[in-house]
Amino acid sequence: MPHRNAPLTETGRLRLAHCVVEDGWPLRRAAERFQVSPTTAQRWAGRYRALGDAGMTDLSSRPHHSPRRTPTRTERRIIKVRVIRRWGPARIAHLLGLVPSTVHRVRTRYGLARLTHLDRATGRVIRRYERERPGELVHVDIKKLGNIPDGGGHKKLGRPAGRKTRSGVGYSYIHTAVDDPSRLAYSEILTNEKKETATGFWTRAQEFFLSCGITVERVLTDNGACYKSYLWRDALAAAGITHKRTRPYRPQTNGKVERLNRTLLDEWAYAKPYRSEQEPRDAYPAWLHTYNHHRGHTALAGKPPASRVPNLTGQYS
User: Fold this and answer.
1) CA-CA distance, 51 to 37, in Å (whole number)?
2) Helices (H) and strands (E) in the chain — how many of each?
3) CA angle, 272 as apex, 269 and 276 as ends, to 5°?
């Protein structure tokens, strides 16, 4: 494929070569006619004389010899350490006496998967998936966070002063449900993770998804006690929803809601030093609205979850 800024396509090159070789045009006249330099006209005419029509295609720019390329033996050592120990470029470079950029180039050259795409326990590539329609699968999880004492915690006061105020403040539990294909999220900050609380949250989450025109078919959770209770099972069964649980010690199976948990920590919970527990609680609904309606999602080609849910109210507010 010609470079996007190339003045000639393969057809144009062939026409230029015909004018020079077959019709006897001077190089300068042909160059002026096709708006290229005489040197370019001479190159394509020479290619045509030597190779015919086949000479009009681009040749590889790869050098015939690479005397400074990393030796094959060293490349094999890099690959062996990467596959067996699953280390990053910096650690491998330190072990083998190289620089991280060299290790990274070798990894890229041989097509080795990124560490973020691997299951660290088994070394297998994590199989990514996305359901076809909203509601086909909803991921549910709970994130436990320490409450912020009045006056602020260690992020506001520093660690020495923060240690004196942190005792007895308790925890908050963020219950979250994320639709698989759209990434639309419903979330609440609650006081515990008991079965009654988790089931009540799901009832409200289901009502939210129904209001958006999404009928939930399956729910995926981890193996928490509240999700193994009869109360949770009966609530889903009454709504005709299938309940599935992740394999033990495999949180990446529920990765979409786990990724949202990390996002809310970075962009809400730890985004600034709060002075009380009420401050982040007051800011959470606005942050969740921004996430659903306005924040671009990399898995959605830079668009927000609302772009995949046409019936979502408040989409443009």
Assistant:
1) 21
2) 12, 5
3) 75
Q: Are 185 and 305 in contact (CB under 8 A)?
A: yes
> Quick one: 24 and 80 in the same domain?
no
The total domain count for the chain is: 3
| Averaged pLDDT, groups of 10, the chain, 317 residues long | 72 93 94 93 94 88 85 94 92 95 93 78 69 91 90 59 61 96 95 96 96 94 95 96 88 85 93 89 95 91 90 56
> Residue 237 in contact with residue 216, Cβ under 8 Å?
no
- Nearest of 50, 47, 97 to residue 71 by alpha carbon: 97
By residue range, what is the domain housing residue 97? 72-117
- What CATH number is given to the structural domain containing 157? 3.30.420.10
Q: From residue 162, how far is each of 91, 154, 172, 173, 273 by CA, in Å?
A: 35, 4, 18, 21, 12
